[in-house]
Amino acid sequence: MLMKLLVNNKETELTQGHTIAQQLELPKQGVAIALHNRMVPRAEWENTVLNEGDSLVIIKAACGG
Questions:
Q1: Measured distance CA(23)–CA(51) in Å, rounded
Q2: Does residue 44 sit in helix, strand or coil?
Q3: How confident is the model at residue 27 (pLDDT cuts 50, 70, 90)?
Q4: How many CA atoms does the CB half-sphere of 5 hold within 13 Å?
Q5: Which residues contact 2 (CB under 8 A, 6 or more apart)?
Q6: Comparing C-alpha atoms, which of 21, 18, 16 is closest to residue 4?
Q7: Position 65 confidence tier, pLDDT thresholds 50, 70, 90
Q8: Are the C-beta atoms of residues 31 and 61 closer than 8 Å to each other?
């Protein structure tokens, strides 16, 4: 079953009942995630289940100068 949530302020449909790690294909480094404006430590991505209406912000580190 699909659920709707916001990812970087964009409505997205993902599979219901899965964790951040299961839902999102993210690099192993250089990424931070906030769920409802609270940072989620990488160690908790495997245990943090996403729910209908959640709001995620994914921040990717950038290099340059």
A1: 11
A2: helix
A3: confident
A4: 23
A5: 13, 14, 15, 16
A6: 16
A7: low
A8: yes
**How many CB atoms neighbour CB 20 within 10 A?**
21
Number of residues in the chain: 65
Phi, psi of 15 (to 5 degrees): -70, 130
Q: How far apart are CA 41 and CA 64, in angstroms?
A: 25
Strands 55-60 and 2-7: parallel
From the number of C-beta atoms within 10 Å of its C-beta (0-12, 13-18, 19+), residue 63 rates as exposed
